[in-house]
Specification:
The complex is a heterodimer of chains A (about 350) and B (about 375).
Chain A lengths: L5 H17 L10 H6 L4 H4 L1 E2 L5 H5 L2 E6 L2 E8 L2 E7 L4 E5 L2 E3 L5 E6 L2 E5 L1 E4 L4 E4 L11 H5 E3 L2 H11 E2 L2 E2 L2 E2 L5 E2 L3 H4 L3 H9 L15 H12 L2 H7 L10 H6 L13 H4 L14 H8 L20 H5 L2 E4 L4 E4 L15
Chain B lengths: L4 H13 L3 H13 L3 H14 L4 H13 L3 H14 L4 H14 L2 H14 L5 H17 L3 H13 L5 H12 L13 H16 L2 H14 L6 H10 L4 H14 L4 H13 L3 H14 L4 H12 L4 H14 L4 H13 L3 H20 L4
The chains are: A alpha+beta (about 350), B mainly alpha (about 375).
């Protein structure tokens, strides 16, 4: 992961600060350029699309779907996407305020003081709408039920807790101050105070450095949203359904040495940048431990008798998550032989 | 049970005449089969003096003694029996039951469990007896967290009697006593607590809440009551409400390691580990036998560089309550951070196994 040198940042930041604000850039960019410029545009930085920025729905101005005798349509008009469900007799139309996700999208509505999760979602793999994961078995009895699944207050608190910043305060929804996606403060508590301090020329009162966390602790950190190993065991999610919980899968791999940062989430993923889709780019991560020759005197593991490139293509297979219309990468790195069952 | 002296003299006279092992064994069997218990016991003892490797002899001597409430001799007989044949579940089971009666509680628990672990060859009715003694012993030894879930199968099966309810009540209030050791003045409290816990275990929501309210009204200051209510609240209410009750518990029961540790644990979960630290430390000092105190203190230490101490406390928690998934998971993570990867993997496997077990056994 490339990161700005902080020594340099400290030297230049005071000079550049006003210019950065003027450009409407993330205010941290003056000093932490790499992180601040890319992060807001990542999937985690976006998290939820509000009406003006609903790129997925803009690209698909008319989507339709039929299920259980109900017809669904999402149409874009006057800067708003309307979600309409009809049963041939009547219909119900609601504006989409919150489109969760940037690739697949599920919509959240407020209807008569309750929150609903849309019964249909947009899935890139379907290039259109399909039933939302988790709602496959619901049989709607009326238009409201066909529109979406009523959620509990607690559930909405958790949705906005993981997908937004400022949307939840002390366990209750604070949608007035909700900013879609994760801002710096969400992962770096104290960052805002720090920004204030440095802007006023005071000692930086820097947030604690996350880059020193062990692999185990990083997994817990990311697991706050991607689910920790413990959380998956508590939920008792077995089988392919747990493939989306990378901290669980990774810890079950023989490669996972909790005190070795070479296997930490952030060794392979820069949380401030887009997910890298090029398989070969992960080779260096594997070879950091599995190279034939030692460079830095670090402990070395066996090397591969089969290939010396695109390691993840064989050892981290793609698995379709049942019901999600999406494919995930199995983080339980391992040798896979023909006929092997998905290990838990 | 008293043995008639007349019979004793008679048997001694008889024994004096028989001298070979085969004779004695045959006479012992005959006495047993004709229900002449004191005579059978004496004959078995005599025969076993000649041939101490006679497993069957120890077995019958043991069962005869057990049936006639002679637990000291019975216990000795079964301990000799298991030395000769350690694969018979009921040998261990009876040994434990005898020890239960003679007050050797740690041994009793160990041996009953050994019998249950072997599993095969125990009649369901006797298994119930063993399991019931096991759970009473756990409570008597202060291992309340291990005990509580073990009452569940009885409740689910609809068993309900005074001893069971008292056992549950003692466990709920965290009193390390056997039902027959409860002082007179406390019996009503224990029965009320047991009854409340019983309703909660049955899942009768409409009656559980009022039962708790009544318990709190009647016994607002009895140690254990507020803690018990707090654990109930934690199952469905925000943590703050439980904390209020836990603080009440500490007012009447200032050294309650469980209450203090639970407050600390809730603070840790809310992200306030450093504030929780002194509470957890005191809880461990007050109650080194409290698994939740050991766990909470270990968990907080696991977030500091002192992993060695963290692991010691987490291991202590795990020893005190090996059935808790949380303790195994806490330990897995600490081992992992400490570079003890094999240990971490083992704890992970155990956590998964326990989670899967409780998965299939229905409501907790």
């Amino acid at each position: 992961m490339v990161r700005s040198s902080l020594g340099k940042a400290a030297a230049t930041c005071l000079v550049l600060l006003p210019a950065a604000f003027a450009a409407g850039e993330n205010p941290c960019a003056t000093c932490h350029r790499e992180e601040a410029r890319s992060q807001p545009h990542t999937a985690m930085g976006i998290g939820i699309q509000l009406p003006a920025d609903q790129t997925v729905l803009k690209e698909h101005p008319r989507l339709t779907f039929e299920s259980n005798g109900y017809n669904y349509a999402i149409e874009r008009k006057d800067g708003l996407s309307m979600y309409t469900v009809s049963d041939g007799v009547g219909s119900l139309a609601l504006p989409i305020r919150y489109a969760f996700g940037v690739s697949a999208q599920t919509f959240v509505f407020e209807y008569k003081d309750h929150f609903y999760e849309s019964l249909v979602s947009y899935y890139p793999s379907a290039n259109g709408l399909a039933i939302t994961m988790g709602s496959e078995r619901l049989l709607p009895h009326n238009l409201v039920e066909a529109m979406g699944r009523e959620t509990s207050g607690e559930e909405m608190v958790s949705c906005f807790g993981c997908h937004s910043s400022g949307g939840v305060s002390q366990g209750t929804l604070t949608l007035e101050s909700m900013k879609p996606g994760l801002d710096c403060e969400h992962c770096h508590p104290g960052a805002n105070t720090h920004l204030e301090a440095v802007s006023q020329g005071k000692p930086p009162a820097a947030p604690s450095k996350l880059g020193v966390m062990s692999a185990e602790d990083t997994s817990k950190f990311c697991g706050a949203c991607h689910r920790t190993w413990d959380a998956v065991v508590r939920m008792r999610t077995w089988g392919e359904l747990n493939v989306r919980f990378q901290p669980y899968r990774l810890a079950n791999s023989k490669c996972f040495l909790g005190n070795d940062r070479r296997i930490s989430c952030t060794a392979c993923h820069n949380p401030h940048a887009d997910l890298v889709r090029d398989e070969a780019s992960y080779d260096r991560n594997c070879l950091a431990c599995h190279a034939g020759t030692s460079s830095a005197g670090t402990a070395l593991q066996k090397s591969c008798p089969v290939s010396d490139r695109k390691c993840v293509s064989c050892h981290m297979p793609k698995v379709e998550l049942p019901g999600s219309h999406s494919v995930f990468t199995d983080h339980q790195i391992r040798i896979i032989r023909a006929g092997d069952r998905y290990p838990n | 049970m008293k043995i008639p002296a007349r019979l004793l003299v008679f048997s001694i006279a008889l024994i004096a005449r028989a001298d070979t092992f085969t004779d004695l064994a045959a006479q012992a069997t005959a006495a047993r089969e004709t229900n002449n218990i004191p005579r059978a016991i004496a004959l078995y003892q005599k025969a076993l003096e000649i041939k101490p490797a006679w497993a069957e002899g120890w077995w019958f001597l043991g069962t005869l003694c057990y049936d006639s409430d002679q637990y000291q001799i019975g216990g000795h007989a079964f301990s000799e029996f298991v030395k000769l044949d350690e694969k018979v579940a009921m040998g261990w089971g009876f040994l434990g039951l005898c020890e239960f009666e003679t007050g050797e509680r740690e041994h009793a628990l160990e041996h009953i469990r050994r019998g249950l672990e072997i599993g095969t060859g125990i009649e369901p009715a006797i298994e119930q007896v063993l399991r019931f003694h096991e759970v009473l012993l756990l409570t008597r030894l202060g291992l309340f967290d291990q005990a509580m879930p073990r009452f569940m199968p009885f409740v689910r099966r609809g068993v309900k009697n005074q001893t069971l309810v008292a056992g549950i009540g003692l466990t709920a209030l965290r009193l390390a006593l056997l039902p027959n050791e409860v002082p007179d003045g406390q019996q009503a409290l224990i029965a009320a607590a047991g009854q409340t816990a019983y309703l909660w275990m049955v899942g009768d929501d409409s009656k559980t809440e009022p039962a708790f309210k009544a318990l709190l009204d009647h016994y607002p200051k009895a140690p254990g009551v507020r803690y018990f209510y707090a654990t109930y609240l934690l199952s469905f209410r925000p943590a703050e409400e439980a904390v209020v009750e836990l603080k009440h518990e500490l007012e009447v029961n200032p050294r309650s390691a469980d209450a203090r540790a639970t407050i600390a644990l809730l603070m840790v979960r809310a992200g306030a580990s450093s504030a929780a630290f002194p509470l957890a430390r005191q809880a461990v000092q007050d109650g080194p036998q409290s698994p939740i105190a050991q766990y909470t203190y270990g968990l907080i230490l696991a977030g500091t560089p002192d992993l060695r101490q963290a692991i010691e406390h987490l291991e202590a928690a795990e020893r005190l309550d090996p059935a808790s998934i949380e303790y195994h998971m806490g330990l897995a993570s600490a081992y992992s951070n400490a570079g003890r990867h094999e240990d971490a993997r083992r704890e992970r496997r155990r956590s998964i196994a326990l989670a899967r077990e409780s998965d299939s056994s229905g409501p907790k």
